[in-house]
Amino acid sequence: MRSMTRMFALAGALMATVMAGPALAQKAPEKAKPLNNVKAETVVTPRLPPASATDPQNLLYLDLSTGGRVVIWLRPDVAPLMVDRIKTLTRQHFYDGLVFHRVIDGFMAQGGDPKGDGTGGSALPDVKAEFNYLPHVRGAVAAARSDKEDSANSQFFIVFQPRLSLDKKYSVFGRVLEGMQYVDAIERGEPPANPSRILHAYVAADSPPAYAAAPVTPPAALGPPIKLPGTSTVSKTPVRPKLAPKAPTAKSAAPTKN
Q1: Which residue has the higher pLDDT, 229 or 182?
Q2: CA–CA gap between residue 102 and residue 189 (Å, rounded)
Q3: Which residues, listed in sequence order, are joined to residue 99 by a DSSP beta bridge?
């Protein structure tokens, strides 16, 4: 009887050992060793949610001399510094009356220079580069700059046709939502002979008035005909000088075609 009891006890102990074996044999998994020159962890900066395309604080209105209003969706989620600069200058009426001084067909229209030749800017300091993931597609609005990356100030350009080679080289801060036909109608040239203008710029949240076309200025009175000695009678016709392109300077803020 005792031998039977011992056998049952031995069998039970053996069974318990077998049942407990896998759990006892398990080891904590080893951490994967990083490869040479490869970081074990990669820090990924999360993207902020896009700014609302219906928030009037994120909508810029450009009333152009080409016939209508352009609505631009501003993106402070990717370019907060440049968006803030554009809003600040807009509320100072800085852009009212400025021309598009460099307009290349199939590429872009550039404006925002008070000098009108690509060498000017505002009295505010330059803005740090905010290169981001937004592409230079049709309707993209980006900050113009010189060769120095942190040289954006007041100038900007609107893309006619995709130019993805500029991606992450210029700070895209907005996109045309409405009125691209008025951008397409901007006079071409470097500089244009008869440049198109920004009549007014507004932030939508400031309750701007409706678009109003520029008043038509009647031609100046020519006066009576003038009779020059030895010639026939001629009219006093004003002469409009042709604009000659100016050599670019270090301040010139313009993207290249490449």
Answers
A1: 182
A2: 6
A3: 197
